């Protein structure tokens, strides 16, 4: 961290500031050129209170040379993290393919879709039991009953379950019955929820906030990791932009940038990004060639009657068609996707 | 709500769709021009699942003519809502002036500032006990100890307390000891938290999300109100834009637009909007002339040593100077601010 | 300018980089702390090619401590610039009130409106002769015929003319017959046009681009000034944000920030910002209390039949009502607006 | 187009509005449900002045069911447009690969790079002779001398030239010596320039504006096409978002959306999108799998000493490596890229 002081700052003011910084546990060195003085901070600057420094009248600018995250930082963990979920992993050579409906609607529905997506090559089942909805008058999910149905589908197919947690109230139920806890985009900075899932051992799928920067996203991962749970999977699901034709704008560059900054796996959700089924294929394929560790795709047996987000769902047949292409593309990139045949015989 | 159907939609498809809509409790009428068919929905369309409609292949576009919020809507509640908090109100002729430090740091500090801001004309005390911070390594607030100190300051000055709630875990403590529960920008769509504060009777100050639209913000107010708590005060605190010179961009037009759409009071937080103390005056004065019902301003006795956000704090003297101008401006607008003298003799 | 080098950069690489920088005419000093080396550049760094520096593999980060603009910079021109336009000025104690229709529609229309706005206190007449329209099929303005009508209105009322130039093709006609050349938001970075108006002596009203930062805007002013024309007036007209209820978001903080960074006058256009007539008053009043040097307001005798932007126009009576309030508010701020009576007797 | 009228609009007002609309050359039909009246407009609504309609007090909302662009619209031109440029095409089965330096720096440089990129599979040469720079003090390009050098490189290699036009002043020189005229992002709504290139027959590469929507971009294409030049190639080069780690955010969904709305070819510029060379590969590959018709990539023999944008340039060797992968990926997608071998023997 470098602190640029205002031109003409007096020597005693500089000394005071240095002392105050050193008392926070870092080493401070002092340079100057003809016009200005600078302070260079060395040590663990992640604990430095930059708000407090910035409020000093003599401070012109603070420059963070180091990233503010530690556990999520690739510098201190050069190899990729591979997250283990039951018999599956995310972050290794094989892509994680998470598929299923937006909302769990009935036991029959979720089991039916689970079988179809597994057959096509998915190795995880998604389905919302608790739904974050802009309107209090919209369907809010089947809640605990939905969790139970997801478990029934897991029992039937063996697919591990990925589903969203919206309240610390249900954390025990999720720990017990969910394989990957999803934190939604709107809760990316619900720090209380992040800390609580950080105290569990269950892998967490952390969606990027609607207008969050990469660093804010990684700082939210850091919240979870700093409580002891290092099993974090990042999920790019599109960001809000001025474009009204698409629900969100898929930021494909997130993949190489996150890979550079962090060792955590990152997957792509092309369904929420585009918000329309015809956009899923381009997003999914882009994700694979950009180096993503997996895909999260909404599949519904009857999109026209889906209780939520039907517009962006693929039918099971469309999903199977996409998986065929994805399979080849993954090979092209030196990665793999579970084969349809393979999944059937397991 | 108007549903535009794709050109060439068959009559039986239209009939099916109409039936499905009517089963959701609304009346549906069918028009057509030479090229296209339309369906007009009448009744309580706020319960209609637009996701499900949009997923029908024959639907080209859905147009909401009605706003999706009801309890927050001025159409059904033409007069302004006035929220009562102890002996004070927000939403009436007198402006609510909420002032205090970003974080509670000690009992001495919070009592000292409370006395100074009261003397200058504030009628509410703010101070963070639980702090939402981007980094898990930043100071997270004095928590329950901070709440206790706020109460001590209230005892000393009589000023009602406004402070942020980040977790449903502490809701009982807040109900007991806080006069206005603040929901921060990052939690504007933490629907679980909104529902829980909606079950209390304590007035809620709902900050606008970092990149939330007015309607999303009002829908979040609707979440609180739909649980029975109609005491919602909206707070514009700046939105995220491309401008790096300011922390956020104060959206002053929020005041007349919200006043048109809703009966709820709206106040302005110029401290968080600009993020620098020299911007507070312009923001505060703009808020008053635009018709806001109050101001929320950060004041610290020693900004250079504030534990958070010192850069945007006013000193008590600067605050007193601003209040003098605000007082005159409020009169000019036919509103009032408690006089310094008056507050001293209470 | 400070250049942060990557950890472990070799001494000879540093020497080479220093030589290359010195050859660009600046002094370079070299610091280092335990981990890293830094180069501090002193002198006129506005000519330094930062692209070229950034491309060196050993460069980690470049920090501009100085602003990249010179002529527009308040540091080198501490007092406010006052732009003289005929008998009027913008930037001094008296506010510049520019009013008139979006488009010039006929001689009768423009003369009629000019008389009404002058009577109400405007000291400049606006009216579009060349119109930037998103669609090639929309009305593009009366062009040279429109300029002629504006001159007729000036002859009748004495009001100096402000109108938009979209093409270098018409620059001679504008120099001859226009008092203030307006550069529209969409042309803020049409560098060719900026250079050409920079070669004239006519005052230029430079609108902020739809998603431009303050520094980009000031760099565009710098383009004009670097060609010799220092008569630049900045105009904040709202920026693009995610909010669909308003045409643009008025950024009121632009006024104090621009005043801090630059000596150039800045005015507010509340008509384009909000895009609806009911929002004009809040925007105009906010502009005055935030310290703006003037207002630009659309006025039309028959908004329902205006050829463009009728929704945001005030009627002459509404404008006169607003001016009455503006007059008092300006006095409150120690500024003035020409009185209605005064303008009539001139 | 559907016009929603306010509840309670009187019959005579409706009649007047219908007459006024019919006088603009469209058919108008009138519907109503219990609460409201609607007008449906049929015919060429692209000429309707929506500003004027919106200004009528009785109008609540205007809904455009039709797109406002005609010539660029896929509805009226279902097959893909293939643009012919000398012996090459863009929009057909073979991808257009445009490569070269950001700026032309010398004849030797541009010829050297042209040979290298041709050998690697590029079929077009890019290079800036006129450079749009934020600062007037930055290098502005070699101008006409740069054009001459590009022609020398074309003579040597046969590669058609793509270069940016910033001023109508040079349009004759560009028509004579340039194969594809590029319109930069900052000039996307420089309507004067669009009209002028629309009067030529030279193919135009139209970059998307920094925060432009797809429809605004297509309306700018429509400006060019409405003047007679239908040879428009669209180029996605990233949009401005809140993310500071990347220069812009590459919007890969632009490809399928533009393909749906329009018949015009679209290419991807991953160099400007990411702004750093390590991001080019992910962007380029995503473009190919999303269905883009080509790529525009910056290549420089000595990025560290490039006069502009060196940070985002590939070296010729890196470019050759990327082309090898791109070649295979194009085959995978049923498209092709000129083979290195093939280009050498031409």
UniProtKB/TrEMBL annotation, chains A, B, C, D:
A Pfam family annotated for this UniProt entry: DAHP_snth_FXD
Biological process (GO), any one: aromatic amino acid family biosynthetic process
Entries under SUPFAM superfamilies matching the protein: Aldolase (SSF51569)
Alphabetical keyword list: Transferase
Transferase is among the record's keywords: yes
InterPro entries reported in the protein's UniProt record: Aldolase_TIM, Class-I_DAHP_synthase, DAHP1/KDSA, DAHP_snth_FXD, DAHP_syn_2
Entry annotated with the keyword Translocase: no
Superkingdom classification of source: Bacteria
Full protein name: 3-deoxy-D-arabinoheptulosonate-7-phosphate synthase
Protein species of origin: Alkalibacterium olivapovliticus
């Amino acid at each position: 961290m470098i602190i640029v002081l205002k031109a003409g700052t007096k020597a005693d003011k500089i000394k005071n500031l240095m002392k105050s910084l050193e008392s926070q546990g870092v080493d401070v060195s002092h340079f100057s050129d003809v016009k200005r003085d600078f302070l260079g901070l060395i040590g663990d600057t992640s604990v430095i209170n930059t708000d407090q420094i910035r409020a000093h009248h003599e401070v012109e600018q603070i420059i963070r040379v180091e990233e503010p995250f530690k556990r999520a930082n690739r510098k201190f963990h050069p190899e990729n993290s591979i997250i283990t979920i039951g018999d599956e992993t995310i972050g290794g050579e094989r892509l994680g393919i998470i598929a299923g409906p937006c909302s769990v609607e009935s036991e029959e529905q979720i089991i039916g879709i689970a079988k179809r997506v597994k057959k096509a090559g998915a190795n995880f089942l998604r389905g919302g039991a608790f739904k974050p909805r802009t309107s209090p008058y919209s369907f809010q999910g089947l809640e605990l009953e939905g969790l139970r149905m997801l478990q029934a589908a897991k029992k039937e197919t063996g697919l591990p379950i990925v589903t969203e947690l919206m309240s610390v109230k249900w954390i025990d139920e999720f720990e017990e019955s969910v394989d990957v806890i999803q934190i939604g985009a709107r809760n990316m900075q619900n720090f209380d929820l992040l800390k609580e899932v950080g105290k569990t051992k269950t892998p967490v799928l952390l969606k990027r906030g609607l207008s969050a920067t990469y660093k804010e996203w990684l700082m939210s991962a850091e919240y979870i990791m700093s409580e002891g749970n290092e099993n974090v999977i990042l999920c790019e699901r599109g960001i809000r932009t001025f474009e009204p034709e698409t629900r969100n704008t898929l930021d494909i560059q997130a993949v190489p940038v996150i890979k550079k900054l962090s060792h955590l796996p990152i997957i792509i959700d092309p369904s929420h990004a585009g918000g329309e089924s015809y956009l899923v294929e381009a997003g999914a394929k882009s994700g694979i060639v950009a180096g993503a560790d997996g895909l999260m795709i909404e599949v519904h047996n009857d999109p026209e009657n889906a209780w939520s987000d039907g517009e962006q769902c693929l039918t099971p047949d469309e999903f199977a068609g996409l998986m065929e292409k994805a399979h080849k593309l993954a090979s092209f990139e030196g990665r793999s996707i579970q084969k349809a045949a393979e999944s059937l015989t397991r």
